């Protein structure tokens, strides 16, 4: 550590949030900034700690946090955010102050970049008089929608009324009131309080977005009106950076050999990301829906993601025999490689923002089945605006699942969606290539930090 911190490169401290979907883009941003000549220090919570051996070029500084796995369950996310910020603020300040005292004048920290939900870093930056920037790891569309929550609350739309759920929010098309569902995140007063804290940019000089201008031009312009800061849309960050391992869970690479044996564009890949969970009844409906679809499928069942079971003990009787070699079930995949594989023809996703960007980058059309929070917003944009997915809404049942898979993978309707996904991939490739919007934005960001 000592050697790296005293190298004569300007030091940037990155403070990621300890959740898979937040950690990956921050580490990849680190790789990008390192390639621009910065020395990278990752100040990270001990809970869900990244693996330093995957990034020998970074310096890692663990922040004692007193957190445990139970804190990261979906129902506890608001508490996780407040607890981790109150637990991390003092140790982070101490660690950075020590670093500043130790380093020579020319080796000082030139900037802190923190994840929006690690807002205690903004306070620390202020106290230590360091410039800071904020990384937003979810979409600009979600930011616009959540900025609207106080208005929706003040005008009596929240708590949501059943009679209005399907209506489009007049000032947020194509979003419906139901896409702004907040009940699954906790009580509305708590949500408003945390949104106010996380949306407070304090003395940050810029917002860095893991998004791409061609996808979210309008949303970025709308949110720019609210935040008069420099904006840097540099995404999809994973496409800008060379591939590195940022996964907290070990991927089962056997699924790649299974994919090699499948016909091009035939496989439906199914994953609900790193946090969402499901009930046993949903597991059974998904299983029979996949079985009845007659398509090959690669299904990620994350250990602990089915209530009341360790892994796949609760799969319905007769299911494995019914699907045989046509189905591959694993605990975790190398998702980006899976989506880039020629055999994959569709992605049934919970529409987490990283999964959304990863699917768009590879031109894979989607079945959108959001579980909570901003996933609802991405699902609506994917299906209604970008038209690269089908929204599988309402109660989950095996008939609906098999029909939706057929619509996407076999029917004419699916061909059009696949074509849209392909052209979205091409635009995204241009954005991350020399002269493209994200490419140029990253260069401007590096100049500003210097
Ligand atoms: N992921 C993976 N293997 C899996 C499932 C997910 O590598 O089997 C990765 C995926 O590529 C993405 C991240 O986990 O980068 C999930 O982030 P996302 O924002 O999509 O959803 P979240 O987990 O935050 O709900």
Write the layout of secondary structure elements.
Blueprint lengths: L1 H4 L5 E5 L4 H16 L3 E7 L13 E5 L13 H26 L6 E7 L4 H9 L3 E5 L3 H8 L1 H6 L33 H12 L6 E4 L3 H14 L3 E4 L3 H4 L13 H7 L6 E5 L8 H14 L3 E4 L18 H5 L3 E4 L4 H6 L3 E6 L3 H10 L3 E3 L5 H12 L3 E3 L6 H12 L2 H21 L4 H13 L1
Parallel strand pairs: 1-2, 1-4, 2-3, 4-5, 5-6, 6-7, 8-9, 8-11, 9-10, 11-12, 12-13
Bound molecules: uridine-5'-diphosphate.
Q: What are the salient characteristics of this protein?
A:
450 residues; alpha/beta; Rossmann fold; 2 domains; 7-stranded parallel sheet; 6-stranded parallel sheet; 13 strands; disordered N terminus; binds uridine-5'-diphosphate
Describe the protein.
By secondary structure, this protein is an alpha/beta fold. Helices cover 44% and strands 14% of the residues. It contains 18 helices and 13 strands. The strands form two sheets. A seven-stranded parallel beta sheet has the order 3-2-1-4-5-6-7, sandwiched between helices. Helix 11 (280-293) crosses helix 16 (398-409). The longest helix is centred in the first third of the chain and has 26 residues, at 77-102. Residues 1-6 have low confidence and may be disordered. The structure holds uridine-5'-diphosphate (UDP). Uridine-5'-diphosphate binds next to helix 2, helix 13 and helix 14. Pathway: Secondary metabolite biosynthesis; terpenoid biosynthesis. It comes from Daucus carota subsp. sativus (Carrot). This is UDP-glucose iridoid glucosyltransferase-like. Belongs to the UDP-glycosyltransferase family.
């Amino acid at each position: 550590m000592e050697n790296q911190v005293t190298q004569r490169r300007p030091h940037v401290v990155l403070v990621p949030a300890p959740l898979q979907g937040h950690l990956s883009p921050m580490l990849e941003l680190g790789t990008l900034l390192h390639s621009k000549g910065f020395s990278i220090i990752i100040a990270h919570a001990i809970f869900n700690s990244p693996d330093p051996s995957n990034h020998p070029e970074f310096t890692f500084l663990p922040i004692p946090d007193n957190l445990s796995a139970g804190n990261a369950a979906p129902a506890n996310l608001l508490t996780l955010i407040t607890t981790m910020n109150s637990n991390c603020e003092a140790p982070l300040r101490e660690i950075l102050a020590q670093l500043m005292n130790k380093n020579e004048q020319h080796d000082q920290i030139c900037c802190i970049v923190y994840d929006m939900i690690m807002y205690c870093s903004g306070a620390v930056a202020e106290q230590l008089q360091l410039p800071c920037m904020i990384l937003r790891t979810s979409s600009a569309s979600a930011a616009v929608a959540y900025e609207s929550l106080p208005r929706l609350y003040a005008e009596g739309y929240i708590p949501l009324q059943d009679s209005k759920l399907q209506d489009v929010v007049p000032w947020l098309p194509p979003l419906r009131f139901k896409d702004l569902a907040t009940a699954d995140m906790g009580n509305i007063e708590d949500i408003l309080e945390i949104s106010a804290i996380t949306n407070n940019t304090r003395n940050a000089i810029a917002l860095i977005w893991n998004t791409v201008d061609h996808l979210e031009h309008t949303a970025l312009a709308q949110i720019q009106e609210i935040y008069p800061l420099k904006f840097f849309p540099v995404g999809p960050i994973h496409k800008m950076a060379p591939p590195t391992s940022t996964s907290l869970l070990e991927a089962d690479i056997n699924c790649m050999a299974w994919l090699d044996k499948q016909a091009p564009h035939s496989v439906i890949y199914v994953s609900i990301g790193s946090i969402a969970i499901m009930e046993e009844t949903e597991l059974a409906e998904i299983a029979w829906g996949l079985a009845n679809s007659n398509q090959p499928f690669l299904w990620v069942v994350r250990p602990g993601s089915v209530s009341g079971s360790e892994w796949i003990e609760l799969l319905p009787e007769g299911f494995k025999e019914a699907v045989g070699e046509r189905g591959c079930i694993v605990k975790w995949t190398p998702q980006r490689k899976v989506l880039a594989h020629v055999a994959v023809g569709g992605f049934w996703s919970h529409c987490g923002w990283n999964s959304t960007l990863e699917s768009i980058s590879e031109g894979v059309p989607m079945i959108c089945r959001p579980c909570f929070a901003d996933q609802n917003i991405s699902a609506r944009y994917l299906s209604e605006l970008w038209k690269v997915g089908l929204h599988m809404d309402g109660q989950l049942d095996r008939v609906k699942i098999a029909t939706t898979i057929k619509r996407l993978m076999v029917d004419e309707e699916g061909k059009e969606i696949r074509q849209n996904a392909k052209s979205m991939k091409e635009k995204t490739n241009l954005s991350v290539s020399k002269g493209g919007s994200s490419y140029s934005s990253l260069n401007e960001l590096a100049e500003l930090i210097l």
